[in-house]
Specification:
- Helices cover about 80% and strands about 0% of the residues.
- It is built from 12 helices and no strands.
- The chain has one domain: Up-down Bundle (Na+/H+ antiporter like fold).
């Protein structure tokens, strides 16, 4: 049930993001986001590894590293839309982080000296393709039928919000007993806040909001695929699920705060 919800949410989120993108100059959208990319693709996995060692998290530390090394979660663009962030920035950063995050997540498996990386890579490529395909479909609809795309984006974002809520509840109910301990939860929160902080250097509030949301959301599907392929211990899977719940709490809180601020702005 949860896996189905996550898959449908992924498709709805990225399709609505693609339909909302108003132009094709995606390179302009990622301009100035170098620090954000560097932190999420390099610094965050290293920090997760260091925290896992410092807190002696054991198997949970492995899950923490893989989750931190897999940016580009498919709900990032949806949360950006719900936060009234810049659609172009969200779509462009999502595409970059999804592709690059596949590489960094696979690289993180080397930390654990795992054999059979080829099978993990094939599975990861499928996850990446499934994540990006709806986005590209939405972009194509926007280019050819802008009025239809605008309607799609509006209704899909509402559907996505409901699916997001259902997914969070399902994760909490189904996997509540598998969650990691307080140390792993605190480490997850610290890493997630660090992932979004570089967005403050971007000019314009909509760009900052979009970049923050896309950076916050990790590719949990990819992380779980990698952990399953390498036969990771249950504690590692629990750490990823814990990371996901903390991630959604922070991302939804940011979305609510951002919407309230945008309504009160003159």
């Amino acid at each position: 049930m949860t896996a189905t919800l996550v898959l449908v949410l992924s498709v709805v989120s990225t399709l609505s993001a693609g339909a909302a993108v108003g132009d094709r100059d995606w390179r302009a959208h990622v301009r100035g986001a170098g620090w954000l990319l560097l932190v999420n693709l390099l610094a965050l996995p290293v920090a997760a590894w260091a925290l896992g060692r410092a807190l002696d998290l054991g198997g949970a530390g492995a899950g923490l590293v893989i989750a931190a090394a897999a940016p580009g979660g498919s709900t990032g663009p949806l949360l950006s839309l719900l936060s009234r962030g810049d659609e172009g920035v969200a779509a462009a950063l999502f595409a970059v982080l999804t592709v690059a995050g596949t590489v960094t997540a696979l690289g993180a498996t080397l930390v654990f000296d795992v054999a059979g990386v080829g099978s993990v890579a094939r599975a990861a490529a499928i996850v990446t393709a499934v994540s990006l395909a709806p986005l590209l479909v939405g972009v194509a609809v926007r280019a050819r039928r802008p009025a239809l795309a605008a309607t799609m984006a509006r209704w899909l974002s509402r559907l996505g919000a409901l699916l997001l809520l259902a997914t969070v509840v399902a994760l909490a109910v189904q996997h509540g007993g598998d969650l990691a301990g307080p140390d792993a939860l605190a480490a997850s929160a610290a890493l997630l806040v660090a992932s979004a902080l570089p967005a403050v250097v971007l000019a314009g509030r909509p760009r900052r909001v979009a970049a923050s949301q896309v950076a916050l959301v990790r590719n949990l599907t990819l992380a779980l695929v990698v952990l399953t392929a390498v036969s990771a211990p249950p504690a590692a899977v629990g750490a990823v699920l814990s990371f996901g719940l903390v991630m959604y709490v922070l991302a939804v809180a940011l979305a609510v705060t951002s919407r309230l601020r945008s309504r009160s702005a003159p």
